[in-house]
Amino acid sequence: MSNRDVVVKRLVSSINQLNRWVDIVFPELRQMFKDIKAKGAIATLRLFPSPLELVNLQPHEVIAGWKSIMKRQPGLKKALLLLQVAKKSVGTRQALDAYKFHLEQLLEEYDLVVTQLERVEEQVTDALNKIPFAKKLLTIKGISEISLAGILGEAGDLSGFSHGNSLLRHAGLHLAEASSGKWKGQIVISKRGRSRLRRFLYLATMSLVMNNPEFKALHSHTVKVKKMKKMKSIMKLLGKLARIFVGISRRNETYCPDKLQPLSPLAA
Asked: For the chain, what is the domain count?
Protein backbone atom coordinates (compact mmCIF):
# COMPACT_ATOMS: atom_id res chain seq x y z
CA MET A 1 0.00 0.00 0.00
CA SER A 2 2.98 2.29 0.60
CA ASN A 3 4.11 1.44 -2.92
CA ARG A 4 0.61 2.24 -4.21
CA ASP A 5 0.67 5.67 -2.57
CA VAL A 6 3.87 6.52 -4.44
CA VAL A 7 2.39 5.35 -7.77
CA VAL A 8 -0.84 7.29 -7.18
CA LYS A 9 1.15 10.50 -6.53
CA ARG A 10 2.97 9.98 -9.81
CA LEU A 11 -0.34 9.38 -11.58
CA VAL A 12 -1.81 12.60 -10.18
CA SER A 13 1.31 14.50 -11.26
CA SER A 14 1.08 13.00 -14.75
CA ILE A 15 -2.60 13.96 -15.08
CA ASN A 16 -1.87 17.51 -13.88
CA GLN A 17 0.84 17.88 -16.52
CA LEU A 18 -1.52 16.60 -19.22
CA ASN A 19 -4.12 19.15 -18.09
CA ARG A 20 -1.54 21.92 -18.32
CA TRP A 21 -0.53 20.79 -21.83
CA VAL A 22 -4.17 20.84 -22.97
CA ASP A 23 -4.68 24.32 -21.50
CA ILE A 24 -1.78 25.62 -23.60
CA VAL A 25 -2.18 23.77 -26.91
CA PHE A 26 -5.83 22.67 -27.21
CA PRO A 27 -8.04 24.19 -24.46
CA GLU A 28 -11.21 23.56 -26.49
CA LEU A 29 -10.74 19.81 -25.99
CA ARG A 30 -12.50 20.30 -22.64
CA GLN A 31 -15.70 21.09 -24.53
CA MET A 32 -15.50 17.51 -25.80
CA PHE A 33 -14.24 15.71 -22.71
CA LYS A 34 -14.69 17.07 -19.19
CA ASP A 35 -12.17 14.60 -17.80
CA ILE A 36 -8.77 14.45 -19.49
CA LYS A 37 -8.44 10.83 -18.23
CA ALA A 38 -11.43 9.73 -20.30
CA LYS A 39 -10.55 7.11 -22.90
CA GLY A 40 -11.83 9.36 -25.68
CA ALA A 41 -9.68 12.27 -24.51
CA ILE A 42 -6.52 10.16 -24.24
CA ALA A 43 -7.21 8.58 -27.65
CA THR A 44 -7.70 12.02 -29.23
CA LEU A 45 -4.40 13.26 -27.79
CA ARG A 46 -2.61 10.19 -29.16
CA LEU A 47 -4.09 10.52 -32.64
CA PHE A 48 -4.36 14.29 -33.08
CA PRO A 49 -1.74 15.99 -30.86
CA SER A 50 -2.66 19.50 -32.05
CA PRO A 51 -5.74 21.28 -33.47
CA LEU A 52 -3.92 21.91 -36.77
CA GLU A 53 -3.89 18.18 -37.49
CA LEU A 54 -7.68 18.13 -37.35
CA VAL A 55 -8.39 21.11 -39.62
CA ASN A 56 -8.22 19.21 -42.93
CA LEU A 57 -9.78 15.95 -41.74
CA GLN A 58 -13.28 14.65 -42.43
CA PRO A 59 -15.57 13.27 -39.67
CA HIS A 60 -15.25 9.68 -40.93
CA GLU A 61 -11.44 9.94 -40.69
CA VAL A 62 -11.67 11.03 -37.07
CA ILE A 63 -14.06 8.17 -36.26
CA ALA A 64 -11.76 5.69 -38.05
CA GLY A 65 -8.87 6.92 -35.91
CA TRP A 66 -10.85 6.46 -32.69
CA LYS A 67 -11.97 3.02 -33.85
CA SER A 68 -8.36 1.93 -34.37
CA ILE A 69 -7.53 2.24 -30.66
CA MET A 70 -10.91 2.13 -28.88
CA LYS A 71 -13.47 -0.66 -28.61
CA ARG A 72 -16.28 1.82 -28.00
CA GLN A 73 -15.73 5.18 -29.65
CA PRO A 74 -17.66 8.47 -29.90
CA GLY A 75 -19.94 8.90 -32.90
CA LEU A 76 -20.44 11.34 -35.76
CA LYS A 77 -21.87 14.12 -33.57
CA LYS A 78 -18.76 14.25 -31.39
CA ALA A 79 -16.45 14.01 -34.41
CA LEU A 80 -18.16 17.04 -35.99
CA LEU A 81 -17.88 18.97 -32.73
CA LEU A 82 -14.18 18.11 -32.43
CA LEU A 83 -13.48 19.41 -35.95
CA GLN A 84 -15.51 22.54 -35.25
CA VAL A 85 -13.68 23.47 -32.04
CA ALA A 86 -10.30 22.61 -33.61
CA LYS A 87 -10.87 25.19 -36.36
CA LYS A 88 -11.63 27.88 -33.77
CA SER A 89 -8.92 26.87 -31.30
CA VAL A 90 -7.05 29.63 -29.48
CA GLY A 91 -4.25 27.28 -28.41
CA THR A 92 -0.67 28.22 -29.08
CA ARG A 93 0.76 27.56 -32.55
CA GLN A 94 4.36 28.24 -31.63
CA ALA A 95 6.93 25.47 -31.13
CA LEU A 96 4.34 22.80 -31.90
CA ASP A 97 7.02 20.20 -32.60
CA ALA A 98 8.35 20.67 -29.07
CA TYR A 99 4.86 20.48 -27.59
CA LYS A 100 4.12 17.28 -29.56
CA PHE A 101 7.34 15.71 -28.29
CA HIS A 102 6.43 16.73 -24.75
CA LEU A 103 2.97 15.20 -25.17
CA GLU A 104 4.53 11.90 -26.29
CA GLN A 105 6.60 11.85 -23.10
CA LEU A 106 3.59 12.70 -20.92
CA LEU A 107 1.50 9.91 -22.48
CA GLU A 108 4.37 7.42 -22.06
CA GLU A 109 4.61 8.36 -18.37
CA TYR A 110 0.82 8.16 -17.99
CA ASP A 111 0.70 4.68 -19.60
CA LEU A 112 3.56 3.45 -17.42
CA VAL A 113 1.99 4.69 -14.18
CA VAL A 114 -1.45 3.27 -15.06
CA THR A 115 0.15 -0.12 -15.76
CA GLN A 116 2.13 0.00 -12.51
CA LEU A 117 -1.00 0.93 -10.55
CA GLU A 118 -2.88 -2.05 -12.03
CA ARG A 119 -0.02 -4.38 -11.07
CA VAL A 120 0.20 -3.01 -7.54
CA GLU A 121 -3.55 -3.39 -7.01
CA GLU A 122 -3.38 -6.98 -8.30
CA GLN A 123 -0.74 -7.65 -5.64
CA VAL A 124 -3.00 -6.03 -3.03
CA THR A 125 -5.88 -8.30 -4.03
CA ASP A 126 -3.64 -11.38 -3.87
CA ALA A 127 -2.44 -10.40 -0.40
CA LEU A 128 -6.01 -9.88 0.86
CA ASN A 129 -7.02 -13.32 -0.39
CA LYS A 130 -4.44 -14.84 1.95
CA ILE A 131 -5.91 -13.15 5.05
CA PRO A 132 -8.62 -15.36 6.62
CA PHE A 133 -10.94 -12.62 7.92
CA ALA A 134 -10.46 -10.22 4.98
CA LYS A 135 -13.18 -11.88 2.87
CA LYS A 136 -15.68 -11.46 5.70
CA LEU A 137 -14.81 -7.78 6.08
CA LEU A 138 -15.27 -7.28 2.34
CA THR A 139 -18.85 -8.56 2.61
CA ILE A 140 -19.71 -5.23 4.28
CA LYS A 141 -21.30 -3.19 1.51
CA GLY A 142 -19.21 -0.06 0.90
CA ILE A 143 -15.85 -1.50 1.96
CA SER A 144 -13.46 -1.67 -0.97
CA GLU A 145 -10.35 -3.79 -1.30
CA ILE A 146 -8.13 -0.72 -1.38
CA SER A 147 -9.54 0.87 1.79
CA LEU A 148 -9.39 -2.46 3.64
CA ALA A 149 -5.83 -3.08 2.44
CA GLY A 150 -4.85 0.41 3.62
CA ILE A 151 -6.29 -0.26 7.09
CA LEU A 152 -4.64 -3.68 7.38
CA GLY A 153 -1.37 -2.38 5.99
CA GLU A 154 -1.15 0.21 8.75
CA ALA A 155 -2.82 -1.66 11.62
CA GLY A 156 -1.59 -5.20 10.96
CA ASP A 157 -3.56 -8.19 12.28
CA LEU A 158 -6.84 -6.76 13.58
CA SER A 159 -7.49 -9.89 15.62
CA GLY A 160 -4.62 -8.80 17.86
CA PHE A 161 -6.53 -5.75 19.10
CA SER A 162 -8.52 -6.26 22.29
CA HIS A 163 -11.23 -3.76 21.29
CA GLY A 164 -12.13 -1.31 18.55
CA ASN A 165 -10.99 1.51 20.82
CA SER A 166 -7.48 0.05 20.70
CA LEU A 167 -7.54 0.40 16.92
CA LEU A 168 -8.70 4.02 17.27
CA ARG A 169 -5.85 4.71 19.71
CA HIS A 170 -3.39 3.13 17.28
CA ALA A 171 -4.65 5.57 14.62
CA GLY A 172 -4.56 8.56 16.97
CA LEU A 173 -8.33 8.92 16.91
CA HIS A 174 -8.84 8.70 20.66
CA LEU A 175 -9.78 11.77 22.69
CA ALA A 176 -7.19 13.69 24.69
CA GLU A 177 -7.06 16.92 26.66
CA ALA A 178 -5.27 19.76 24.93
CA SER A 179 -4.00 22.91 26.59
CA SER A 180 -2.04 25.96 25.50
CA GLY A 181 -1.58 29.57 26.46
CA LYS A 182 -4.90 30.54 24.89
CA TRP A 183 -7.15 27.73 26.14
CA LYS A 184 -7.05 24.90 28.65
CA GLY A 185 -8.72 21.56 29.07
CA GLN A 186 -10.27 21.25 25.60
CA ILE A 187 -11.02 17.67 24.54
CA VAL A 188 -9.77 17.01 21.01
CA ILE A 189 -8.71 14.08 18.83
CA SER A 190 -5.11 13.36 19.80
CA LYS A 191 -3.74 12.54 16.29
CA ARG A 192 -0.90 10.74 18.07
CA GLY A 193 -0.88 7.71 15.85
CA ARG A 194 -0.65 6.53 12.27
CA SER A 195 -1.88 9.27 9.96
CA ARG A 196 -2.43 6.95 6.99
CA LEU A 197 -4.53 4.64 9.16
CA ARG A 198 -6.67 7.64 10.13
CA ARG A 199 -7.06 8.50 6.46
CA PHE A 200 -8.14 5.02 5.39
CA LEU A 201 -10.55 4.63 8.32
CA TYR A 202 -12.12 7.99 7.48
CA LEU A 203 -12.41 7.17 3.75
CA ALA A 204 -13.92 3.77 4.55
CA THR A 205 -16.49 5.40 6.86
CA MET A 206 -17.43 7.99 4.23
CA SER A 207 -17.89 5.21 1.67
CA LEU A 208 -20.16 3.34 4.11
CA VAL A 209 -22.26 6.44 4.77
CA MET A 210 -22.78 6.82 1.02
CA ASN A 211 -23.25 3.16 0.05
CA ASN A 212 -24.19 1.07 3.09
CA PRO A 213 -27.91 1.19 4.05
CA GLU A 214 -27.26 0.60 7.77
CA PHE A 215 -24.57 3.25 8.12
CA LYS A 216 -26.56 5.65 5.96
CA ALA A 217 -29.57 5.23 8.26
CA LEU A 218 -27.47 5.68 11.41
CA HIS A 219 -25.87 8.85 10.02
CA SER A 220 -29.26 10.23 9.03
CA HIS A 221 -30.63 9.50 12.51
CA THR A 222 -27.78 11.16 14.40
CA VAL A 223 -27.90 14.25 12.19
CA LYS A 224 -31.66 14.73 11.79
CA VAL A 225 -33.01 13.33 15.06
CA LYS A 226 -30.17 13.84 17.53
CA LYS A 227 -29.18 17.12 15.82
CA MET A 228 -25.52 16.13 15.82
CA LYS A 229 -23.12 17.91 13.47
CA LYS A 230 -22.32 15.90 10.37
CA MET A 231 -18.60 15.58 11.06
CA LYS A 232 -19.21 14.52 14.64
CA SER A 233 -21.63 11.87 13.35
CA ILE A 234 -18.99 10.63 10.89
CA MET A 235 -16.42 10.30 13.69
CA LYS A 236 -18.94 8.41 15.82
CA LEU A 237 -19.59 5.98 12.96
CA LEU A 238 -15.83 5.65 12.43
CA GLY A 239 -15.60 4.32 15.99
CA LYS A 240 -18.44 1.88 15.28
CA LEU A 241 -16.62 0.69 12.15
CA ALA A 242 -13.43 0.09 14.17
CA ARG A 243 -15.38 -2.02 16.68
CA ILE A 244 -17.05 -4.01 13.89
CA PHE A 245 -13.70 -4.68 12.19
CA VAL A 246 -12.01 -5.84 15.39
CA GLY A 247 -15.03 -7.92 16.47
CA ILE A 248 -15.27 -9.75 13.13
CA SER A 249 -11.51 -10.35 13.05
CA ARG A 250 -11.27 -11.62 16.64
CA ARG A 251 -14.32 -13.89 16.58
CA ASN A 252 -14.16 -14.80 12.88
CA GLU A 253 -17.81 -13.82 12.52
CA THR A 254 -19.69 -12.70 9.44
CA TYR A 255 -21.10 -9.20 9.16
CA CYS A 256 -24.65 -9.02 10.49
CA PRO A 257 -26.60 -5.94 9.30
CA ASP A 258 -29.39 -6.67 11.81
CA LYS A 259 -27.13 -5.61 14.67
CA LEU A 260 -27.11 -2.09 13.21
CA GLN A 261 -30.82 -2.01 12.37
CA PRO A 262 -32.58 -0.78 15.56
CA LEU A 263 -32.25 2.89 14.63
CA SER A 264 -33.09 2.43 10.94
CA PRO A 265 -36.87 2.85 11.26
CA LEU A 266 -36.34 6.06 13.20
CA ALA A 267 -33.98 7.34 10.54
CA ALA A 268 -36.53 6.59 7.82
From this structure: 2
